[in-house]
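Bit of a strange request maybe. I'm writing a small parser for structure token strings and I need a real example to test against, not something I typed by hand. Could someone generate the tokens for this chain?
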Amino acid sequence: RIKKNATTAYFFQSPKNSLGIRLSRGFLIFFFFILCLSCVSALAAEAWTVTCPWAPSGVAAMVNQKAASLSTTYSQDYVLVANAEKGDTATINSWLTKYTEADPQMCFIGEGMFGITAILDPERMNFTYDDFEYVENLYSSIFVASARKELGITSIDALKAYLEEGNQIMVGTTGSEAFLAAALIGAMGYGDQFYLIPYESAAEAAQAVARGEVDIAVSHQSQILETWQQGGVDVFAAFDGEPIAQGPFKGVEGVGQYGYPYFRNRCFIFAKAGADEQKIADLKALYAQILTDEEMVDWLNNTMLLEADMMTEEEVIAHIDNVKNIVDEYYDLVAE
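Reply from user aminoacidic:
Good idea to test on real output. This should exercise your parser:
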């Protein structure tokens, strides 16, 4: 029971305060109504886990996280959840066994699995392209070649001149980067003058050239940037058809300008074959919005030194076929 005094009597009896109480209650009811709608919307959104089969601290995993963070900006029906399970082909083998086409699951696969592992070590792969449903290409990376400062290799012509003098060269690489290096040096005609030094990742290869353990390395641009800024290496070639068009390495010439073979590094997003067609179409549309978002494009270009590069499935297959052709031609140089 409330014991009334002059103040409480005024408070409960004043028409003005009664109106205030009613307005406050109305606001609270409206607020909770909106909150409930938000909760229902969040619960209604289907969470799709996107598994990166490479290092959680690597380039692909970082882009995966960024894309996932923007998914709720563009969709009330789907939420992307970034996941990373290092293991490359083994991770994808496990992923295919664990999930069905009805599960809200996607994964990353690059040209390395379909274009290189499929030729070099097919027994490691318990899958083919037909086991997947293509969604989108997450990004495109132009790998670069860097050389120890002491060598004076500042251009593609300078590399050729160095090899013409009969010098042997040690190349720090991993995975698909090994074939880029082999294709460049092999196409120059000096396939017997280089040695591949394997590293666990392109980032480690970049660090190795900085320490002087190897003569040149092939890596993502972002992985060699700091060492280049400190003057420790020369970045002399880009594995593309034209010079790099933007960023700190703008103007670095492309090997394709000289007629040497190359391929870009891509990160393809797949669902399992047989997944719901409408959901795949919706996810394609969601990624199209994410990859044209101004914040995303700026971050890719200026922080990660990558490009948003949406591709049709026909372009994906052509890319994989190009990689296979390079592997077939330069396989002996890498396998030796």
